[in-house]
Amino acid sequence: MKNRYLLLIIIFTLTFTFLNKTSSFKSIANAESNGFDCSVVSEIPQTECEALVSIYNSTGGANWNVNTGWLVTSMPCAWVHVVCEDGHVIWLNLLSNNLSGSIPSELSNLTHLDILQLSNNQLTGSIPPEIGDLTNLTRLFILYNQLSGNIPSQIGNLTNLVDLSLVGNQLSGSIPPELGNLINVNYLNLDDNQLSGSLPPEIGNMSSLTQIYVEGNPLEGPIPSTFTNLTLTAFWFENTNICLPDNPEVLNWLSTIGSLHSTGILCVDPSLVINYDSGAPGSYFTITGSDFPDGEVATIYVNGQVLGTTDTSAEGAFTVLFSTTDADEGFYMITATVNPSASTWFTLDVNEPVRPQEGKGTILNVPAGIAFTEFVFLPVIFR
Questions:
Q1: Residue 254: pLDDT above 80?
Q2: What is the C-alpha to C-alpha distance for residues 61 and 55, in angstroms, rounded to an integer?
């Protein structure tokens, strides 16, 4: 299920509750935090000790809900929420502990870390690319913070990962195709961020994947056919612009998924319809766009030059009028693009009638000097 790690969170939360009730043991040496001497620590490597100190200082350790032992004793394995094994830190659990600030790059020195839990805090900034050095990680949970920026492609180096959840942040940009390297991940949750672009086909290489959650992101485009390589029990992509391709193999595959939250949007190529394909200079031409992404801004090109923009409606439609009072005789290719794009054309010829204004909408003036003297197809934007 989507909250398959809920049991771990409940256990951690009960631990926090107990420790908060014994808050008299909370560290009072925060003022000296920067001066902690890791050279006196013997139970873990000095680099791992320094990584823990960096995490404490970078995330406001003095104000954590619980920081018992941190930077007070010379035994980091006894610091609350730190678990060691065979002389190395293997588990760092700082769930719901009032962390603020950024994740330091020094975290990468915890090279034996198996589980990293930083969820339900107020972390800001980006995920450091150095996180890709934690190649022993099996579970990475950084849910419900305020992290921004891209998902670093270096996460694709974490080939031992089983669970990856970054839900509820402000992460943007595209989903890195390097996630396709994570062949042991069976749970991937990227819900409720600001991720854009399309689903990378490389996700189809994640052979152990059983659950994908990408809801609440401005993702778009069709579901890649490579996804049919996966045996999913859950695939949630509501509240996105992801569409269902006209591909029987993909549609049949979707029907086998027990927990499917779909947009229900069919992938339909947008179109432009023009009321006249020719007229004399001084004519008005009306184009109507349909099946574009809804609620977006369409950029209007004429012969490769941007003439303006218009908003698409909730149905993905718009109307634009072109005034040719200043335009020359010749061919004009109109392209409207959000992603994907559609095109149509008209010709100005003094031997044709002057077309009157029809309909209402944004009026764009076609300037002089941009006419083609022969018909040219201009693919301005590709899907």
A1: yes
A2: 8
